[in-house]
TrEMBL record:
Top-level taxon: Bacteria
Keywords: Membrane, Transmembrane, Transmembrane helix, Transport
Keyword Chloroplast: no
Name this protein carries in UniProt: MFS transporter
TM annotation in the entry: 26-46, 74-93, 105-122, 134-151, 163-185, 211-230, 295-319, 331-351, 358-380, 386-405, 426-447, 453-475
GO cellular component, one term: plasma membrane
Ranges of residues in domain Major facilitator superfamily (MFS) profile: 33-478
Subcellular location: Cell membrane
Amino acid sequence: MASEARTTSSTASAGNIIARQDRLQVWSLAPSFLVVIGVGFLFTFFDIFDINVSFIQTCAQIAAGCTPANASSFLGLPVLLNLVAYVAGALFLTPLADRFGRRDTLLITLLITGLGSLYTALSNDMTNFTIARAVTGIGIGADLAIVNTYINEVAPRNGRAKYTSLIFFMSALGAFLGIWVGLLLTTEATPFPLGLPFALASAAFTSGWRIMYFIGALLALIGIVLRFQLPESPRWLILRGRVDEADRVVKGMEERAARIQPLPEMLDELPTPTQEASVGYAEIFRNPLYLRRTLLLLVVWLFAYITVYTISAGLTVVLASLKYPVPEAGLITAMGTFGFLLCAVFAYTFGERLERKYWLPIGAVITLIGGIIIALGGTFSSPSAVPFVSFIGSIILFFGFNVWVPMTYAWSTENYPTRARTTGFGIVDGVGHVGAGVGLLVVAPLLEQMGPLLAMLLIAGFLVISAVIAQFGIATRGKRLDDVSP
């Protein structure tokens, strides 16, 4: 059976190459490439989450009049510009990946993100901090779209959500580190469970937040060096008429797959155009099919990101505004990252069991349960009272608002053809981040007037709306990309 992998580059057609790749049922690139891609995602999510706990210390150091009680009023502008830049990066850089290639653009996006993190670490006032967060947002917005596109174009068709979830584990690890390192470096030592007794922040050590962003810049540098090893996506190579190069990549994938299991029978060849003239935005906005899909996915992400970012970037500040002591609010948030890690493992194991869109209502219900438990757990004022109920609620909350994400990442890329796949994801994920701005700038300030229970119900309610809308989308699980999106 391994002999089926033999195809000479002089005779292989574009359709034959894609059919050979589509029949592969295991990860067929070097296993180390998953780590290579994952390191970039680890940094990306480290940078998204590191502001959650650390911002109170940052604000106190560089903004006159900032205190834990009013830090939420200073959070809005840097988060807003970070999100605006995220949208800009997604909209302006992702088309480059459809035109010039996935791998080379991945190097550019991570370089921009790393420079933004370095600039943040060196900021001495809110103006420069805000600009630095915007630079970082440009890189992150494009990087997420291109990584998800790349994974879905090289993963086996029966494992696109599975391997997206595996990379998402590195995202969860980055979020875990961003919050826990923030708790260690930017909060004062406080008896457990109201905080960390070995936390380092003090009157003599107020620069922990800077160290966090220096760590982010170092992680970005490591990711850039590693990404040079990645091959280009065979689907993109064919799109640009580089059939021989695509054949060599797929041949290597076949040889690696044949060492794991016998190669399956060949699939039918599908029409596979090369040298497409209509790519990126031109394809999406001229084609009614992809325009309809874009509008639906955009609304799904808009509502979902209200929930996601209110929790991921603002839960500590939200809890503080609800009268939770800052160390306790930070620790409750930090405990939630265990749920993030758990959901990534769960998604890798079970993500292919259901259609992508069914995971959204599951995540919404779990998010509601976690938020209600946190609200009922209340806050505590002495070390003798352990807020275990709130800890458990936070773990469930983080599991719920993240468990659907990798499957919906995969679903979003599957809705578009190779010639517009990165651009399409960039539109729905990038513009969808307007919802993140709504969550942090409109919803979050209202929460302190509601009380914990109503606040948590409101936060989760937006994900419920997103889940309902998603059910009108298409089914993609296990299908060939060119069947779903010709």
